[in-house]
Fold each of these.
Amino acid sequence: MKLSGKVNWLLALVVCVLTAASYAQWSNPADDVPAYHPSAPLKVSALPHILTSAQLTGSNSLYPWQLHVYQKAAQVSSVIYQLPCNCRCDRALGHTSLRSCFETVHGAQCDVCAAEAFYASEKTKAGWTPAQIRAGIARREYEKIDLMKQ
């Protein structure tokens, strides 16, 4: 009787895997946009705090850009709330936008997050809207940012 239960469980697992694989063949990777919020938060003060440079220690503060990016992120907090993060930390860490990366030490550890935040800061100063910055991120324009020069 126990063997039959194991066989049924194994059969159910195989069916689940095959079903997932069949859906994957119809998905379009170009339509797969990382998580972000389509509009500004209602109250920025209600969001988790972006870490300060004093909270970054050890390997999270080896390079000047690691501290500087958190300052920039705090300055454009509501903008980066509306931006996706192409390192796909939404999948791995459950992040809901680029802003989430700077609520933890992740932004100091990931060159993609950092470059996107510097890019967002630069484009916000230039008068770009979050939608325009999202489009630039989709075009991977942030990849031109040299972190060592920040």
Amino acid sequence: MADNTQTSAHMHPWKISDLVLFPAFAAGGVLEWFLPLHIPFPPAPMRWALGAALAVLGVGLIIWSKLVLDAAGQPSLPGTPTTRLVTTAPFSFSRNPNYLGALTIGLGGALLVNAPWLVVAGPVAGAILQVWMIRPEEAYLRSRFGAEYEDYCRHVRRWL
């Protein structure tokens, strides 16, 4: 009988979030250029401060989560098996801090450049990530860690 055990969350190394995030935000940028939305954003100084703070927060969240994964000897890139469930630090309040950080950077950038379409692109990218990346990751972790992962899911939300 063949062994159908999946050894990693994504069997294809090209299946990375950048293939969702960059096109989504690029599409938002193109839409903003050709069909600008006229939604009132906060005044420039406030918008810049909030946008910069969100971008820095997103970068910090990604760095923090990667450092935590590295310290636990766990991969953050597709195609590599997970051998231990990491549930501490940023993983104690979000099961997906890397994706959350990337979307936070996008929202910060949208505010910095006053581009409402980029704000719209964020939830669209998040929904695509959830179907294309997160659900397969969850299925893999569920099959790999069973009750331990189920308990983690009961206590920590997918996003926030």
Amino acid sequence: MIDAPLDHIAIVVKDLDATVALYTETLGFSRVYREIVADQDVEAVGLRAGDAVIELLRPLSEDSPIAKFRGDAATKLHHTAYRVDDIRAELARLKAAGVRLIDDEPRPGAHGNTIAFLHPKSTGGVLIELCQRSV
């Protein structure tokens, strides 16, 4: 994963519409996508940030893991995601190197991407997502 480009930075938000308005109307970012990712219990909005995306995540229920992660905060940084060409090969390489994986197998993510998470206990306390774009 050396030299893997940043794909997106995800922020969990309490008020998605207000945060989207801040980023688009006030800060001038453009919206790339807005979708429900049901199996992750979130609504995701992607905002263009140069070659990367700021991904705003709104929990669909207050008892979801991502809502519990956010807690009482209005917003909270959730993870950084790095783009890889071959997610399966990268997961195998990282596992062989002793990195603890949350996802042993890639799964569908937002915007048609295939994703997998690395455990923060193996990454200095930061939740890292590997992201392979759809073809």
